[in-house]
Specification:
Number of domains: 2
Keywords: Cell membrane, Cytoplasm, GTP-binding, Hydrolase, Membrane, Nucleotide-binding, Receptor
Shape: elongated
Helix content: 40-55%
CATH superfamily of the largest domain: P-loop containing nucleotide triphosphate hydrolases
Membrane topology: Peripheral membrane protein
Subunit structure: Part of the signal recognition particle protein translocation system, which is composed of SRP and FtsY.
Radius of gyration: 44 Å
Bound molecules: guanosine-5'-triphosphate
Strand order of the largest sheet: 5-4-6-3-7-8-9-10
Order of helices and strands: HHHHHHHEEEHEHEHEHEHEHEEH
Distance between the termini: 152 Å
Organism: Streptomyces marincola
CATH class of the largest domain: Alpha Beta
Low-confidence stretches: 19-68
EC number: 3.6.5.4
Structural class: alpha/beta
């Protein structure tokens, strides 16, 4: 009986102990949060060691201050690179611009044809013909020569049909302009004694305001259109705007412009431009010079120095004189001073679209003994044309 009582007591104690353990275990489980999400484990109150320890935060994982993206205004977009233009081919430009020439030179060509077609070619008529030629700035000596030739040829002509007169006048005008002159702008470079390739160097000279800088820029386009690589030298350091103007022309066709400080030494800019041309392996270096000088000795000093300094790199292949066709005899006198200072090898005659004095082409060639190589026929970027005597005379007689 005692044993039975003992077994019952042991059983009761055992049940009590087991149920106590279960309740304790349940109490240790955290209740789920009311929203059903999983609770984050609480960070350890103290650093742990051994297997329980969290791996350390490495340097790579730590964000530096530069990596932090702060809210703020967006950075402005980079300015677009200037667009490089493809200039129009130079060949045939004079034909394209023929209408402009025909308009401006109407009084010369048509005037001569009308007078030559008169029934009676008396002394008065010949004087009128002479007058027309002089007014168009053909110049006294070429005018006398031309009138004599025309008189002689008309005398032997039986009839004077408009076609015959046109053909005759065309021939005589062409003879005055010269059809066999070398009008190519020289773009052949050279080789230094050390065997280094050198670009062709073109100096552009002339009185300021004649269109010198504009012509340099337009010529750069002509050369680029012909496939040449070009470097520009802004040696007109007297006017900062001239360098800006030239640089803008250059940027449009992807040509670099070398410039110096305002009022700096033009010869040094010219020298640096040619040096840059050699470094870049450019085909042509075009140097825009200043023509502000009023005295011949000042001009001689400056242009002479520019040429001498540039020639340390090698010979200057071309000296282009820019002449404003609207300035007539006055412009011609100035041109002669330039020709005495430097060996001019070609003429760029500008603003031929704005004057009836196209005869200046004959006069300037005669006076300076150098061919007109380029003519300016407008303010447009591609309005500079290689001079073509036949297209010119055809426009005159249109
Ligand atoms: N109509 C016409 N205008 C031209 C021609 N060539 C140049 N011009 C204009 O003539 C003006 C003077 O040109 P510039 O190139 O600034 O003259 P510049 O000789 O370089 O003068 P500086 O820069 O002061 O030395 C500009 O308005 C040109 O657009 C042309 O063939 N026809």
């Amino acid at each position: 009986m005692d044993i039975l009582i003992l077994i019952v007591i042991i059983a009761v104690v055992a049940v009590a102990v087991i149920s106590g353990l279960v309740v304790n275990g349940r109490r240790k489980q955290a209740p789920p949060p009311p929203d059903g999400t999983r609770a984050r484990p609480a960070p350890p109150a103290e650093p742990q060691v051994g297997e329980d320890a969290a791996p350390p935060v490495t340097e790579e994982e730590r964000r530096t201050i530069e990596e932090v993206i702060l809210p703020g205004p967006e950075a402005p977009p980079a300015p677009p690179a200037p667009e490089v233009e493809v200039p129009e081919p130079a060949a045939g430009r004079m034909v394209r611009l023929r209408a402009r020439l025909a308009r401006s030179q109407n009084s010369l060509g048509r005037g001569l044809l009308t007078l030559l077609a008169r029934e009676r070619l008396d002394e008065d008529t010949w004087e009128e013909i002479e007058e027309i030629l002089l007014t168009a700035d053909v110049g006294p000596a070429p005018t006398v020569e031309l009138v004599e030739r025309l008189r002689e040829r008309v005398r032997v002509l039986g009839t004077r049909s408009p076609e015959e007169l046109r053909a005759l006048l065309r021939e005589e005008l062409l003879a005055q302009l010269g059809t066999d002159l070398d009008r190519e702008v020289r773009t052949e470079g050279g080789v230094s004694p050390e065997g280094e390739e050198r670009p062709a160097v073109i100096l552009v000279v002339g009185v300021n305001g004649t269109g010198k800088t504009t012509t340099t820029g337009k010529l750069a386009r002509v050369l680029v259109a012909e496939g040449h690589s070009v470097v520009l030298g802004a040696a007109d350091t007297f006017r900062a705007a001239a360098a800006d103007q030239l640089q803008t022309w250059g940027e449009r066709v992807g040509a670099r412009t070398v410039r110096g400080p305002e009022g700096g030494d033009p010869a040094s800019v010219a020298f640096d431009a040619v040096k840059e041309g050699i470094t870049q392996g450019a085909d042509v270096v075009l140097v825009d010079t200043a023509g502000r000088l009023h005295t011949k000795s000042g001009l001689m000093d400056e242009l002479g120095k520019v040429k001498r300094v540039v020639e340390k790199h090698g010979p200057v292949g071309e000296v282009l004189l820019v002449l404003d066709a609207t300035t007539g005899q006055n412009g011609l006198t100035q041109a002669k001073v330039f020709a005495q200072v430097v060996d001019v090898t070609g003429i760029a005659l500008t603003k031929l679209d704005g004057t009836a004095k196209g005869g200046i082409v004959v006069a300037v060639q005669r006076e300076l003994g150098v061919p007109v190589k380029l003519v300016g026929l407008g303010e447009g970027a591609d309005d500079l044309a290689p001079f073509d005597p036949e297209a010119f005379v055809d426009a005159l007689l249109a």
